[in-house]
Batch of 2 targets.
Target 1
Amino acid sequence: MFDEEEEEPLAAIPPHDRPRERLRRLGPGVLTDEEILALVLGTGQPGRSVLATARSILRQTGGFSGLAAMDVTRLERLPGIGPAMAGRLTATLEIWRRAGTTSAWSPLVDDDATSRIVVPELAHRSTERFVVIVADRALRPLEVVFVRDGGDTPVQVEPSEVLQAVLTRGGRSFAVAHNHPNGTLEASVADMAITRRLGAGAATIGLRFLGHILVAGADWRRL
């Protein structure tokens, strides 16, 4: 539920001090988190300004890091966010993630290189997610592809889903990763089984399987 603290209506703020005008006049670096989020949201809720809506969302999620860890379904459940707004936020966060990582990717010559891609992607998620890093013959990453979410249960993936994702994107090599939201780096029987099956499946169609990374918070291990 929204907090009931007193708020200043956006209309009561002098025009030159409103988020959009401050952005144009001073640049994005001077904006507060709630002002940035307010610009993304565009509108508030009935009886609440967009700034108050943004402030409440940030309090509920613990800031941008918590917001970035939420998938679109969980965002839709937050008071003040419907399907359209949840979709807009998810797309905006994905732009930020891609812009901040793609240019920094290095060839997948070892597990450290793979971890530098997948740990930021998976470390703060509250549910399990399985991704594949598609790479070319020279091990240069082409794309990180979301394969499947586990929801409230461990993620279940078939090798065919992963191999198809690699082939349809022109990949010649690939690595996979998933996270354990409970913070444990202990691999399950299913984790080890999918790793073996992916290795065998890749070999039969001429793809190079580079390994499986398990992420738990900021920690990781190879399976």
Note: Confidence is low (pLDDT under 50) at residues 1-6.
Target 2
Amino acid sequence: MSKKELVKTVFDGHQAERTPVGFWHHFVEDVYHANALKDDHIKPANLAGHQQFLKDIEPDYIKIMTDGYFQYPNEKLQKAEHLSEVGEIEPLANDDPWIQEQIQFAKEVEALHKNQLYSFYNIFGPLTTFKILYDDQDERVSRFYQEDPELFAKILKVIAGDIQKVIEGILSETTVDGIYYSTQDLQTDDFTDKDFIELVKPLDTALLNRAKELKPHHILHVCGYLGAHNRLEKFADYPASAVNWATGPEKLSIEDGKKIFKDKVVVGGFQNTADDLIYKGTESEIKAYTKELIKEAGDTPYVIGADCTIPADTPREHFDWVRQASIEEAAENENKKLFIGILVAVVVVLASFLIRNRSSEPSKENSRNVKVAFWQNYYPYNFVNDKGEADGYEVAVFREVEKKLPQYHFDFVPTSNEDLLIGLESGKYDAGIKGCWYTDERAKKFIIPKNYHGASVIGLTIRSEDKDKYKNIDDFAKAKGRLVPISPQNGQYDVIQDYNQKNPDHPIDLVPADQFDLSDAYGWVLEGRYDAYFSIDLSYKKSVEDEDGPYHDKADQLTYVTYKGIPIYPLFERTDENEQLVKDYDQAIKELREDGTLEKLSQQYLNKNVFDYIKD
């Protein structure tokens, strides 16, 4: 699961393989006064900051920081001491630089991560946009309201209209996935809840509803920056998929906040100042707190983050600790869920799991223990069954190998897709199984056996109405079908390249592209932009055919055409000791293939002999 798919899964309301993590900070000094329309240095500095942040942090998603565009471009408003000095204001033109430069800036930030991350563009609501114009923000704007409520309302409505132009441009002209909508109470007694509900809330909700018409998922940020307080109940019915509030200033935990924002994804958990844990905590403290937050969120779709922007000099390794804790907690939690109706401590679950998975044969006195990590959510290739045991096709293959190699004992360790590779590189695991294809890049990092032990079946997802037109991949190629673009970093790209080399008279038009999530691909096929999406059959089954799949509503409109099987291999940590292990493994696999054991296991777990699909 890519990072973009990970975040989208959570925002769709489903449980992902782990909890996503996202933090952000400003990239420009004196952010409230910085003006990119007047200072040519601001935008490059902000863009460079995003680029370095993406490189250093490698976040699961990105919030695009609008440093330099805080100042609404109306000089009368900017200089006003009293509202009477302003009068009614005119809306900005559609081509105003404040609008168009933000759209261009969003495009440039998106190009940095090549659409591989879910992205949210920062948008301040009209009241916040208004008060940011002044150093005495809340006091002056509250005074303006008292001076002339009717004129104040007209001005706020114009500002809201111009913000809508930015939102429409960002969401319709760029690949940005949603907005991060920041709003806040006025921090004065003169502007009451009634004033906010009657004047501000309709504008906020109208802007969010317009955003929803263009893209499905947006984050509501009820800002508690610098200790601001908000009456959160006012925001409970705002039309946003997710909500982020200041747990510190509001003194409202994730657990209590869920009671107010019942149907929303929760974003946050960490307080955000230099006096708080994310800035000065130790590895053990930050990891422990991260796991507490995940437990506190429970079944609520949750994204780990902070109350607001964090200090720019927060140590980078702190973010790694949060993400690693999320990975570790996901592995532990998966095991607990699979003990139906039983709640036990994580340590008990893992200990029980390891005991259950020891070989029924007495281990040889001189046997070597080999830690084999498996991707626990890759059913039916690898999973944890309802008895808490390692199971699946690849696990079963390794158990048969173990019978032939008494000098080794395999300890199976359930984990996430991401942690498996990280752990294998770091030496945490000796071997890993996750349905891996051979790639030159993987062969440089790991030892890959000569003999494959199974296959992933791959093919085309097409519209059901085209099933007679495209009965196989040759039909698709000869009809010059349009294939959804594939990232060159994706192994599927190589498969199509190989097909084209072998079929020069009818090649498939292979368009390189950046990574994108599955909903884009299925949607593009359904709307006719493309005629097919190239993917493994397991992905199609989990996403479309399964009743709880996120795209099951498209099941009657899509069908799958099988192409062939791609050999899969285990990965081994590159050590001298493992060189001999891999040689022994290769011999055992050769024997298991010859005696028919692998074919029997394939039928048992995959309901077909995947070796029949391997054409080369």
Note: The chain has three domains: 3-334, 368-451+569-610, 455-566.
